[in-house]
């Protein structure tokens, strides 16, 4: 994972986005950075963790409420990125929305 986040005490929500990319960047990196910045400015955004190997990417974003997640999905700039992702950047993806009822942390 490449980002530490400060999650609140449960319950909160996690959006798990797993994807398989197409070949090449084709502007993906720049848009990804822009979307991460924009998401962080949205009401209810709590943080994000992300990992990618050469085939599979997993990004988990954390939100205060289902309404906050819905508003982010419907954000106009995010919609443009979603459409471009379907056309150019992803072979496939899956989104899962989960309620986090309990969590714990180990730091060695």
First and last CA, distance: 16 Å
CATH topology-level name: Alpha-Beta Plaits
Helix vs. strand class: alpha+beta
> From N to C, what is the helix and strand string?
EHEEHHE
Q: Can you tell me the CATH architecture?
A: 2-Layer Sandwich
CATH top-level class: Alpha Beta
Instruction: Give the spatial strand order of the biggest sheet.
Output: 2-3-1-4
Largest sheet: 4 strands, antiparallel
Supply Rg: 14 Å
Mean pLDDT: 92
Number of strands: 4
Note the overall shape.
globular
Assign a percent range to the helix content: 25-40%
Seen as an oligomer or otherwise, the chain set is single chain
β content, as a range? 25-35%
| Count of the domains | 1
Pfam families: Monooxy_af470-like
Organism: Metabacillus niabensis
Protein name: Heme-degrading monooxygenase HmoA
GO molecular function, one term: monooxygenase activity
């Amino acid at each position: 994972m490449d980002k530490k986040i400060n999650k609140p005490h449960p319950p909160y929500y996690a959006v798990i986005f797993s994807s398989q990319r197409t070949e090449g960047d084709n502007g993906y990196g720049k848009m990804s950075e822009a979307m991460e910045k924009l998401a962080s400015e949205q009401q209810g955004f709590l943080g994000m963790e992300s990992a990618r190997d050469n085939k599979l990417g997993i990004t988990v974003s954390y939100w205060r409420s289902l309404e906050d997640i819905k508003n982010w999905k419907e954000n106009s700039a995010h919609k443009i990125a979603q459409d471009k992702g379907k056309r150019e950047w992803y072979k496939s993806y899956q989104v899962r929305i989960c309620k986090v009822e309990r969590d714990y942390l180990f730091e060695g």
